[in-house]
Amino acid sequence: MKQMSQELSLADEITEKYGDDKSNLIQVLLALQKKYNWLSEDVLKLVSQRLDIPLSQVYHIATFYKAFSLEPRGQHLVSVCVGTACQVRGAAQLLDRVVEALKVRPGETSRDMRFSLETVNCIGCCALGPVMVVDGEYCGKPTTKDIEQIAAIE
Amino acid sequence: MPRLDSLKTFESFRQDLVAGRDPQKTYITICSGTGCHALHSDKVSQAFEQALEKNGLSGKVGIRRTGCHGFCERGAIVSIFPRDVCYLKVKPDDVPEIVSKTLLENQIVDRLLYEDDNGQKVMHEKDIPFYKSQNSIILGNNRYVDPQNIDDYIALGGYSALAKAFFQMNPELVLEEVKKSKLRGRGGGGFPAGTKWETTRNAPGDIKYVIVNADEGDPGAYMDRSLLEGNPHCVLEGLIIGAYAIGSNQGYVYVRQEYPIAVENLSVALEQARQYGFLGKNILGSGFDFDVAVHCGAGAFVSGESSALMTAIEGRVGEPRSKYIRTAVSGLWEKPSNLNNVETWATVPLIISKGADWFCSIGTEGSKGTKIFSLVGKVKNTGLVEVPMGVTLRKVIYDIGGGIPGGKKFKAVQTGGPSGGFIPEQLLDLPIDFDELTKVGSMMGSGGMIVMDEDTCTVDTARFFLNFLSEESCGKCTPCREGIFQMRKILNRICEGEGKEEDIALLEEIAEVVKDFALCALGGSAPYPVLSAIRYFRDEYEAHIHEKRCPAGVCKALISYYIDPEKCQACSICLKNCPSQAITGGKKVAHVIDQGKCAKCGVCLEVCPSKFGAVTKHSGAPQALTTGR
Fold first, then answer.
1. Which residue of B has its CA nearest to A27?
2. DSSP, res B190
3. Measured between CA atoms, how close is B128 to chain A, in angstroms?
4. Inside any domain, residue B501
5. How far is it, in rounded angstroms, from Cα B627 to Cα B475?
6. Which residue in B230, B271, B483, B541 has a CA-CA distance of 20 to 30 Å to B360?
7. Chain B contacts of A66, Cβ < 8 Å?
C-alpha cells in the first residue's frame, strides 16, 4: 500500500511536469516507464485522469509501443539485437543461447525476477555484432563464458 | 553568453572565436559515438584526462569528445590534431603510452596505426583506405566538433549558411536553390525535397510545421543517429533554413528513445542554440521566429512513416493513413507539415553556402550529392561510409569495405532496410542511384547496406524480414496485416522443410497484392526481399522445397552436425560445452551427437580444435549420424 502511494506521488510529479496537454501522453508514459520500469494499472489510471484521456486510449498507446511494459520487469534488462546486421552474424544462435542460460524467453521476465529479456531491432553497434546489452553495458560477440557470467549476476 | 542579435554581432563573435583559438594547440579527439562508447571510449577519455593531469598537460592539450568518425570496425578511434595521427582500437591501457610517446616525445605508437594488406602503416586518418575513397562532406565534420559545444560548430563555419539565407537571400530564393539542387529525401522515399517544401509553403494556412524524422527504424542503419549524436547543429541549421523558406515557426524532432546519446546531445544543442539566438524570437535580428520541440518515439517501426509520425507527435497511436491528401498540405494537427529525414536536413546548409550548382556537380543525373551508408554484416570494414551517388557497389564493398572476411565468398548485398532487395554479384558494378537500385528490385532506403556471404541463406533472411515487418505492422489494412502474415507462414514452412511445389508461385501472387494495395510503404515494400530473392536466388528456394536442403547451412530444420569418428580425438571439449547434453563419448571413444537432442546451436563446431576439425555441418542427404559410422 505504501509502495503504491509512493508510486502514485512520483507519477503525480511527472504528470505535473508535462501539464495537461494531451499530446504529451507518449512522453509522460515514457518518463513513467523509465522511472518505474513498468506501467501498473494504477499509474495508467492516474495518467488517464490527469490528461483527461479515456483509459482505453491510454491502454491503446501502452500496448502499441514496445518501450512500455505492463508487467514488472526484472532487476536486469538484457537486450539482444536482432537487427539485420547482427542477424547475418548469428544473432539467432546467440538469442537461443541466452534463452537457455537465463531460462527466460524474449518479452518475458524470469521467475526469480532477476532478468527480463527483450529483442531489439538495431542499436547501431553493427561493428560489434552480434550484440547484447546488459543493464546498459554493451557486449559484442559474446562468448559462452560471457553468457555464463551474465547468468550468474545477482 | 549574450544573445547574437544581429548579423554583425554574429560575424564579429565568430571572428573573435576563431582568433582566440590557437590552430597549433594539440587536441586529442576521441570518438564517443554509440559504437565506440560500446568499446569503452568513455574510459579512454577518462584515462586521457588522468594522464594529462599527471603529466602537467591539462591546460596545454585539449580533449574533444566527438561523434562517430565512421570506421566502427576499428573503434575506439583516437585522432590527434594538428599532428594528424590516427590511432585505432585504442583501449584505456594504451593511453599512458600515447601520452608519453606521442605527446611528450613526439613519437608514433606504431602498433595502434592502421596497417594495410602489404604491412604498410598509415598515420593520417584521411589516408586510411577506408576513408580515402569517401567524400565525407556531411559526416566528415564529426571529427572536429564536440556536439555539446556549439562554439566548435561555429568555428568551423556553422550557421553561416543560415546568415546567408536570412540576409543575402529571401525565402523564395532559398526555396529555388533547394529545388535547383535536386536534393532527394534521404530517408527512403527519395522524393524531391524542394518540391515538398514548395507544396508546404503554398498550402493554405498561416501555421505550418517542419519536422525532422530521426526515427531511423531500419535494422542495420545508424547514419542518422551518428549525425544527430555527432553534429546536431548541422541538422538544426538545415531545419531553421527550411522553416524560413517554408514559412514555419515551429519545428519538431521525432527521435527514437533507443538513441539516448542522440537525445541528450540534441537537447544540449537546442539549449545552446537558444542561448545564442539561433532559435527563439527574432533570430539574428531578422524578424523571423522559430523554435523546436523534441518528441521521443516509443518503439514502433511503423511510426517512422510520415503520417504515422505526425499522429504520434499528437500523442496518439502512430498509425499511417492513406495519403490522397499529402501531409505537406494537411499533416500535424491538420496543418501543412514538411517532414524530412535527418540527413536531408543536414545537407541543406551545404547547398545554401556552396550553391546548388556545386551540389549538382556531385552524383548522377537522377541522384545528386552524396549519401551516407551503414556498411555492415559480412564485411571487413564495418562502419559508416559517405560516397558520391554514382559510385559502384563493388567500390563500396571492396575498396572501402575491404571485402568479405574469413576468405568467404560474397553472395549478396541487401540495401534499403527490411523492404529492400538482394543484389547479387553479377550486379555489383551497378552505380548507387535511387532509380538504378529500384530497377533491379531493391531501393536506396535510408542507406543500410548489409553484406552477405555464402553462409547466409536468402530464404531465412527473407523470412527474418517478414517476421520483423509482420510484428511491426500496425494491422490497419488487410493486404499488409494478412498478406505479410501469410507470406511469413509460407517461408516458415519452407525453412522447416515443409515447402510445397506451389509455394513460390503463391508467394509471388500474394506479394503482388500486398505491394499494390497496402496503405503505406511498410506493406507496399514488404514483398521486395522475397521477390528479389526468388528473382536472383531461385535455386536456393527450390533446394529448400524439393531437396529439403539449405545450401548455406543455416535453416536449423534442414541441417545437422556430425562428428567424424576418424577425426575425433575424444578430447570431450564438445561434450562438455554442449548445452543440450546431446553428445556422448568417453576417453578414446569417438564422440557421437544424438540428433534427437541436438538443438543445432553450433557450439560443437565452434569449440572443436581446428587441428582436429572433427565436427562438420550438413544439409540435404542424411548422414549415418547417430551411429558414427
1. B296
2. -
3. 18
4. yes
5. 50
6. B230
7. 298-300
pLDDT in tens, B205-261: 999 999 999 999 888 889 999 999 999 999 999 999 999 999 999 999 999 988 888
Closest Cα to residue B336, out of B429, B242, B197, B217? B197
CA distance linking residue B4 with residue B275, whole number of Å: 9
Count other C-beta atoms under 10 Å from residue B592's C-beta.
20
Strand, coil or helix: what is B67?
coil
Give backbone dihedrals phi and psi of B372, rounded to 5 degrees, phi first: -95, 130
Number of Cβ within 10 Å of residue B19's Cβ equals: 8
Q: Which three cell numbers stand for residue B218?
A: 531500419
What is the domain-level CATH number for residue B44? Answer: 3.40.30.10
Looking at the fold, whether B213 and B177 belong to one and the same domain comes out as yes
Helix (H, G, I), strand (E, B) or coil at B64: strand
Q: Is the dihedral of CA B429, B433, B434, B436 positive or negative?
A: negative
Structure ipTM: 0.87
B317 part of a folded domain: yes
Chain B's closest residue to A131, CA to CA, is: B38
Predicted confidence (pLDDT) per residue in B358-371, tens digit: 999 999 999 999 99
Q: Are residues B430 and B568 in the same domain?
A: no
pTM greater than 0.90? yes
Residues B149, B292 within the same domain: yes
CA distance readout (Å), B502 to B422, B466, B490, B498 = 23, 19, 10, 12
What is the rounded distance in angstroms from the CA atom of residue B515 to the CA atom of residue B12?
Answer: 56
CB pairs under 8 A between A and B: 139
CATH for B615: 3.30.70.20
Residue B135 belongs to a domain: no
Residue B14 lies in a domain: no
User: How many Å lie between the alpha carbon of A125 and the closest alpha carbon of chain B?
Assistant: 5
Residues of chain A with C-beta less than 8 angstroms from the C-beta of B597: none
Nearest Cα residue to B551 out of B455, B470, B477 = B455
pLDDT score, position B625:
45
Residues B294 and B187 in one domain: yes
Question: Where is the domain boundary, B423, B438, B453?
Answer: B453
